[in-house]
Design goal:
The protein is α+β, with helices and mostly antiparallel strands. It is about 35% helix and about 20% strand. It has three domains: about 200 residues, no CATH class; about 160 residues, Sulfite Oxidase, Chain A, domain 2; about 110 residues, Immunoglobulin-like. The strands form four sheets. It has a five-stranded mixed β-sheet. Strands 3, 4, 7, 8 and 9 form a five-stranded antiparallel β-sheet that branches. A hairpin with a 2-residue loop joins strand 7 and strand 8. It is globular. It binds ligand MTE and molybdenum atom. The site of molybdenum atom (MO) has 6 residues, from loops. It comes from Actinoplanes aureus. One of its GO terms (biological process) is sulfur compound metabolic process.
Length: about 525
């Protein structure tokens, strides 16, 4: 196991040069993320929540540990099996790394070099272990280990072969073995930690800090003072609280200096854009509420931000798509894809190639340097982070990342609402109780929010003003609460006139439905 730790530590060090995603744990974890069957993934997400990625890395490390334990045990008797096992370990890591998008052939190096170092380390440790083990005279020295059976034992000429002499020798050997183990584990840990630190030094934090956002070509929308309702979540979600969803085990580090956006495929005029080109384009600031299709009824995978970016419609016009190209495939540097209807991106809504979020450059975890934001569509079909390609194609010809995994190819945001206060299970004094929350139907807008207490009538809540139909709307209602246990329910109606359905549906394949309910206790 110590030898395996050395392999992983060496691999982390090599990955400083070859990229974080070529390190074996991350590479193998990435393959697992992309290929794990949906029920297993759902289980992992259900158990570990937003820590599912850390759980995956720890799980992978545990698997490696178990494997290493087996190799260690077998290797004491059959060295060739251990060497083969280590080679297989290296090959799996190398093969996994090669499947990652955007990595070159050098991605095999961390796994292969890690495995290559593990062989002599394991041999050394097994020999040291053999010396530190009591053996019967009859079996000695045949039980010494490794390709070099000359591992010195107590029967070697000139040594004290008495019982006492042997046990003194054993004690010394054990101490030495434990010391060797400590040294090896220390080297492994130092290598791993140093590797990780050096990798993160290569991160784009500095590049991000030196970005000066361009000024908008028109003033940003002014928020009406009444946009915020007491008791609801903040109308503008601070960046640090903004939900984060993606498949990336290590956050892609994209330097604006080397960033390119290629618009190609079924277009008459392919375009390649650099960061400098992008900054020269018109920039607008728009509040847009982004929602994840995985958001459960009442869930918090939704946030509202002021995005700064250039309208994608004009870029698409310049690229001049062929009429049959009904899908724009957005591709991230890590190979993740999403497919957006071309018509949606050209229908005049504020679909942005965004570089700013709430007055800052995009946080790295939210797609620095450039991502897409499209009002009215769930994130998985519209909001590619670390974007590097727009490929015009047809829905009939290409399935984006989540489509073969059971999610719909097209997914407009469903009209939804949530009660933020009181919380489920809360207690309040009888009398007027403020019930408040958010409702959203991006790009259609909210016309009405109603609240129902127990089986009573639906009552209209007051709607706060918003800046556009592309953000959530806050609502509130003063409820004359009477003692007892009550259930509060909310439903919204959008400006198209459709009222949110009460029929419960799971997030898959195209967004959860149902009314959010909270139970409250009035004293
Ligand atoms: N590159 C990349 N972009 C991505 C994803 C991803 O996995 N990889 N996930 C999408 C999903 S499912 C959602 S809901 C939004 C979330 O954006 P956020 O993390 O900035 O909130 O990003 C989208 N963009
Ligand atoms: Mo999502």
């Amino acid at each position: 196991m110590a030898a395996a730790a050395v392999a992983l530590g060496v691999a982390e060090l090599v990955a400083v040069a070859t990229g974080a995603r070529s390190a074996p744990l991350v590479a193998v974890g990435g393959v697992v993320v992309d290929h794990v069957p949906a029920p297993v993934k759902d289980f992992g997400i259900a158990v570990f929540g937003v820590h599912d990625k850390i759980a995956l890395l720890v799980g992978t490390a545990l698997l490696v540990t178990g494997y290493a334990y087996g190799l260690g045990v077998i290797g004491r008797r059959r060295w060739a099996v251990a060497v083969t096992g280590i080679a297989v370990f290296g090959a799996i890591g190398a093969a996994a790394a090669l499947t990652r998008t955007g990595v070159g052939p050098e991605a095999v190096l961390p796994s292969l070099l890690g495995a290559a170092v593990a062989v002599p380390v394991l041999r050394y440790l097994l020999r040291a272990a053999g010396r530190a083990e009591p053996v019967t005279t009859a079996s000695f020295p045949a039980a010494t280990v490794g390709p070099d059976p000359a591992g010195a034992g107590p029967t070697v000429a000139g040594r004290d072969d008495s019982a006492q002499g042997r046990s003194a020798y054993l004690r010394r050997s054990r101490r030495r073995f434990v010391r060797d183990l400590g040294i090896v584990a220390g080297i492994a840990a130092a290598g791993g930690v140093a590797g990780r630190m050096l990798t993160s030094r290569r991160a784009v934090t500095a590049a991000r800090q030196s970005v000066a956002l361009p000024v908008t070509t028109e003033p940003a929308p002014v928020l009406p003072a009444a946009v915020q309702v007491p008791g609801a979540v903040p109308y503008v979600t601070p960046n640090r609280d903004f939900y984060r969803i993606d498949t990336a085990l290590v956050t892609p580090q994209v330097d604006p200096a080397s960033w390119r956006l290629r618009i190609h495929g079924m277009v008459r005029n392919p375009i390649t854009l650099t960061w400098a080109d992008l900054l020269r384009r018109p920039m607008v600031a728009r509040y847009v509420t982004l929602a994840c299709v995985s958001n459960e009824v009442g869930g918090d995978l939704i946030g509202n931000a002021l995005w700064l970016g250039t309208p994608i419609r004009e870029l698409l016009d310049e690229a001049d798509p062929l009429p049959e190209a009904d899908q724009v495939v957005q591709r991230s540097v890590d190979g993740w894809t999403c497919g957006t209807p071309t018509a949606v991106l050209r229908d005049g809504r504020d679909a942005l190639l965004a570089i700013g979020m709430n007055g800052e450059p995009l946080p790295v975890s939210h797609g620095f340097p450039v991502r897409m934001v499209v009002p009215g569509l769930y994130g998985y079909v519209s909001a590619c982070k670390w974007i590097t390609e727009l490929e015009l194609t047809r829905f009939a010809d290409f399935d984006a990342y989540w489509v073969p995994r059971g999610w719909s190819a097209q997914a407009p945001v469903k009209t939804q609402s949530r009660i933020d206060t009181p919380r489920d299970g809360a207690s309040r004094r009888s009398g007027p109780v403020t019930v408040a929350g958010v409702a959203w139907a991006q790009h259609r807008g909210i016309a009405k929010v109603e609240v129902q207490v127990d089986d009573g009538p639906w009552t209209n809540a007051a709607l706060a003003p918003t800046v556009s139909a592309d953000t959530w709307t806050q609502w509130s209602l003063s409820w004359p609460a009477e003692p007892g246990r009550h259930t509060l329910r909310v439903r919204a109606t959008d400006l198209d006139g459709s009222t949110q359905t009460g029929a419960r549906a799971e997030p898959a394949p195209d967004g959860a439905t149902g009314w959010h309910e909270v139970a409250v206790n009035i004293e």
